[in-house]
Amino acid sequence: MTSSFSAWFWSERFWLPENVSWADLEHPPPGVEYPRVGDILYALPLAVGVFALRILFERLVAKPCAHILQIQAGVHRQAQSNAVLERVYLSKTCPDAKQLEGLSKQLDWDVRKIERWFRIRRNQDKPSIQKKFCESMWRFTFYLGIFIYAVRHLWVSPWTWNTRLCWDNYPFQHQSPQQFYHYVAELAFYWSLMFSQFIDVKRKDFFIMLVHHLATIVLITFSYANNMLRAGTLVMCVHDASDIFLEAAKLSNYAKYQRLCDGLFVMFSISFFIARLVIFPFWIIHSVLIESWEISGPYQAWWLLNGLLFVLQTLHIIWFYLIARIAIKAIFKGKVAKDDRSDIESSSDEEIHSNSSKHPNQTSGPNINSNLNGEKRDH
């Protein structure tokens, strides 16, 4: 049964172009290395290491930086102790009008008082600005580091400037150590995001991000198994470029440097448009869809990989619509407005009492707490 499933799953007709077999890829010429699917499994234990590294980074680097910028954890106002409301809250954080009316009769409380209790109770579970700052600083550091690493080896690669070379003698293409490390690092990072997404700051686009992470993981894994490393590294590099500006804008926002935040967010919007709505579809997808068809011809996995690229492009269009709305407000109103993709619950001043003091020249700015993947990047 297991062998039959394995033979079906690793069917050469699905994964490889015509007249190419797995046996052809098992014995590369001397000095040449082809990708081995089993090697990509190193990303799974590495993802645990990436998550552990993130925890250490946030505690030892990001949190001290937050203290330097006077971003304290803050203390949420505590809801009045009530066993009945607490039981309801554990099953439903936002009860409907009928439930509120029933609770009002049961407790002899005014409905507005009960609504206020649930609002305060929800805000109790909200992460602090400091936690958001630490999360964004980790993402900013990773995106910046992996982008610099990718540019260093892609800049000297001829297929970066002539994408038709991505399919020259495909799939018999040498895998360089830089390509392997790039792939494993990116895949481990996105696996760690899949795990941490359920404990990180919850946002309105949770399910969109879940689809994004799944599509990215499948795309990275499939492209590695098919030895599409040249095109794959280009895809990852283009996605990481704009996420750097996003995380930098969020860090500036949490630190209450509003002008810097506005400028970085506009830069993010421009870089997102250029990278994901111009370069990605008209340069990379065009190469994977058109140039690879002309040079090596389509096969079954080819259709799936192109489908995943179009899923990502659809998400890019949705996100850019949301980004453009915020950027336009930033340009014409001089202030980044609250992000439509930000935290599910917003906290009012009366419900959060912060222990920190702000700089005299800092003004309280709205939250742009979005995560694109980007994020990448979240996002």
Report how far the terminal alpha carbons are from each other.
Answer: 39 Å
Mean pLDDT: 82
Q: List the helices and strands in order.
A: HHHHEHHHHHHHHHHEEH
| Strand order in space, largest sheet | 1-2
Shape: elongated
Structural class, from helix and strand content?
mainly alpha
Biggest β-sheet description = 2 strands, antiparallel
Strand content: under 5%
Radius of gyration: 24 Å
The helix count comes to 15
Are there runs of 5+ residues with pLDDT below 50, and where?
339-379
Number of separate strands: 3
Which bin fits the share of residues in helices?
Answer: 55-70%
Task: Report on this structure.
- The longest helix has 38 residues, at 258-295.
- 66% of the residues lie in helices and 2% in strands.
- The protein has a two-stranded antiparallel ribbon with strand order 1-2.
- With 379 residues, the protein is an all-alpha fold.
- It contains 15 helices and three strands.
- The protein is elongated and about 80 Å long.
- 34% of the residues are buried.
- The chain has helices spanning 2-9, 12-15, 22-26, 43-68, 83-91, 97-107, 111-124, 129-154, 158-161, 177-196, 206-225, 229-254, 258-295, 300-333, 375-378; strands at 75-76, 352-353, 373-374.
- The model is unreliable at 339-379 (pLDDT under 50).
- It starts with a helix and ends with a helix.
